[in-house]
């Protein structure tokens, strides 16, 4: 009986590892969604600079930091990969561009050693993030508003 439980647990662990390896074997994530702060709706972004690496926002190996007193305004980042025709959530993090912090919420339906920890953001990601966000969020101009009759 105990042996069957260990086998089942081992298979579940193996499947979760294979799933995460599939993401990285394909070169990162398919897309991310960004929500929060001043965004009305979540924004879908495919910019390779933000999706190519698990460590795009912070180096989770080396950049762990203490909890900031006031991280400022943050954005929730949800990272996805596509398996066949299914969009599958991989993980979530919160990025605080003004203060340069990342809170890694963790792997969805799993866990890692990085979950629930604060990190110093990669300083180069701020420009890329803001550019990608600006490209996706188009301001309403007077030319795009309907005319009143």
Blueprint (SSEs and pairs):
Layout: H1 2-25, E1 31-36, E2 43-45, H2 48-51, E3 64-65, E4 75-83, E5 86-96, E6 101-107, E7 117-120, H3 125-136
Antiparallel strand pairs: 1-2, 1-4, 3-7, 4-5, 5-6, 6-7
Tell me what the structure shows.
With 149 residues, the chain is of the alpha+beta class. 27% of the residues lie in helices and 28% in strands. The longest helix is centred in the N-terminal third of the chain and has 24 residues, at 2-25. Mean pLDDT is 81; it is low at 17-26 and 140-149.
Tally of DSSP helical segments:
3
What does the average pLDDT come to? 81
Principal-axis shape equals globular
C-alpha Rg (nearest Å): 19 Å
Distance between the termini: 77 Å
Structure summary:
By secondary structure, this protein is an alpha+beta fold. Helix content is about 25%, strand content about 30%.
